[in-house]
Every structure is written in C-alpha cells, then in structure tokens.
Amino acid sequence: MPQASPRGTYLQVSEALRQQIELRNEDRTLPSEAALMRAHGVSRNTIRRALKVLEDDGVVESAPGIGWRVVQGGDQRSLAQRMTDLIGEDSLAVGDTYPSEAKLCERFGSSRTAVRRVLAQMEGNGLLATVHGKGRTVRALPTSTVRP
User: Fold this and answer.
1) For residue 5, what pLDDT is reported?
2) Is the pTM of this model over 0.85?
3) CA 24 to CA 134: how far, in whole Å?
4) Cβ–Cβ < 8 Å for 108, 79
C-alpha cells in the first residue's frame, strides 16, 4: 500500500480484497487476518476496518470459528456503487429528493454508519446536496461507468 493517500488505506485494502474476491470463484473463505496483514503490509486494525466495509456492503460475513467468508449470491457491488446507481434505477432527476437514511438502511440492509459514510462521499463528489428542511436532493446525475 502507498505510504500517503488522500483516501483511507482501509478503503484501498477493501477495494483490493473486493477485486480478489471477484477473481476467486471457487474459494469462499478469506485468508486469516494475519495473512491479510502480511499480504497488504498494514495493521490488524486496517484489515478489520476493510473487512467491516465489505461486511457492510454485504460481500463478506464473519463466521465464528471459521473466519471471514464470501456471502453466497447477492449483489457484489459496493454500497457506494449501489447507492449511486439508485439515482438511475429510481429515475431520479436533478432536484428530486433522494431517499432518507432510514429507507436506504432498509433497502440495502446496511448500517446507518455505512449509509452516512457513502452519503457524505456522494455529497463530496457533487452528486447530492443537503437542503435544510427538505433532506438530500440530487444535485447532478452520475456519469456512466462501465467496469471491465
């Protein structure tokens, strides 16, 4: 991992793990936290934070006595990608009200903390704006991104 990054190291590790999971179809268990620490050259806390991001996104789950395993089936997109795609899926236009935190938590089965993290990211990217008394509104439509 790079020494200095404008983006949290744990987020970089979580994306690297997500890509590894997508490439490994047959192995559904992840290496131990110690092995992940060595592989990525980071602390245990960084690995745990990265795994928590993936858990919040519904990609992995903790299995007592086994470790971390990949969730079978389901949507493998990150929570950030799913929440961004929601704008197109729900045919929201600029100025439309974006769903509330509670509705997003229910829709995606994620914690309020995870949803708030992504909402802040979306506001920072200029996709959403918070209007006092009205909630969040769509400020700009996301650009189309096609993953290879």
Assistant:
1) 53
2) no
3) 44
4) yes
